[in-house]
Structure formats: C-alpha cells, structure tokens
Write a structure and sequence with these properties.
Length: 173
C-alpha cells in the first residue's frame, strides 16, 4: 500500500525527469531499495529522508505530506487556512526578507525588531482579550518604534542613493 511519502518521492523524481537508476546512484542506495520506498513497501530511515530532502530541495514536512509547501525558502511558515490572514503573514515575511536584504545595517535591524516586537505583542494582547481597553502608553510606544524604523529605513535609502550618485559622478569623469 502506498503512503504519502512514497507517492511524493515518486512524483519528485518524475517531475524532474529522472530515472530510478540515476536517483539511486546519486543517493547512494540500490535501485531496488528506492523502488521499495516509492511503492511504500519499505519505510525510509531518517538519514535517507534527510538526503532525499536535500537532493530534491524540499522540506521534510512536504516529503511526509504534512504541507503542500515544497520548501520554506527562508520563509516564516505558519499554516493558515484563512486567505486574508495568509496574505498578512506573507506581507510580514516579505517585510522580514527586505530588512534582511538591507545587509548589516545594525540600526535598521534593531529598529525593525523593536517595531515588530511592539506590533506583535499588541496583536497577541488583542488575541488573548479582544475586549481589553486600549492602552495609550502601548499605542505611543508602537508609534515611536514605527517612527524609528521609518527613520532608519529612510536614512539607509538616502545613503544608498548618495552612493549611487557618487558612482555616477565617478563614471562621468
């Protein structure tokens, strides 16, 4: 009887147009053993699961059929059935990715972390007690953290722009 991992293992190989012989050689197992895994006759050991996930570039959760996301790709992965909320989570992941792409700017990272911490702690507070009264001191801290983050973002953008202008001037000379 074929289970989730066996169907997925077989489909990953077929999607890439690979033969069992090629994959078994690459993974260091016999073709017969790979066939047993793909047909659900044998269950793979942990070391094989790690190798096959690395080989195909998928997560173990995908391999075992726990998610339809093949890989996390440095994303924050949270299972969320509501499409509206999923969009918000994806926006947060993009935010984190963009801050990370800003390089080693420590002040920006610190400001982004503080802003996210304030924002998420408020969201958690609201989840725990949606009828809690508004806290003006929290709102002020959130606004301050947001302003600091925006100031650091603008400073980084201005610095990048001036470096670009200097490079253009050097090129013109």
């Amino acid at each position: 009887m074929r289970s989730g991992y066996s169907v997925i293992l077989s489909s990953l190989r077929r999607e890439r147009g690979l033969s069992q012989k090629k994959v078994s050689e690459d993974l260091g197992i016999s073709q017969a053993l790979l066939s047993h895994y793909e047909n659900g006759v044998r269950e793979p050991r942990f070391d094989f699961v790690v190798r096959v996930c690395d080989y195909y570039g998928v997560s173990a959760d995908y391999f075992f059929g726990r998610t339809s996301e093949k890989t996390y790709d440095d994303k924050v992965f949270i299972e969320c059935p509501d499409p509206t909320l999923r969009g918000s989570l994806e926006t947060a992941a993009v935010f984190l990715s963009e801050v990370g792409a800003a390089g080693g700017d420590e002040a920006l990272h610190r400001a982004a972390a503080e802003y996210l911490e304030r924002f998420l702690s408020g969201a958690l507070r609201d989840l725990r007690d949606p009828y809690a009264p508004s806290a003006p001191e929290f709102e002020a801290e959130l606004k301050r953290a947001e302003a600091a983050f925006l100031a650091e973002s603008r400073a980084l953008a201005d610095a990048s722009a001036s470096v670009g202008e200097e490079a253009e001037e050097d090129y013109d000379e």
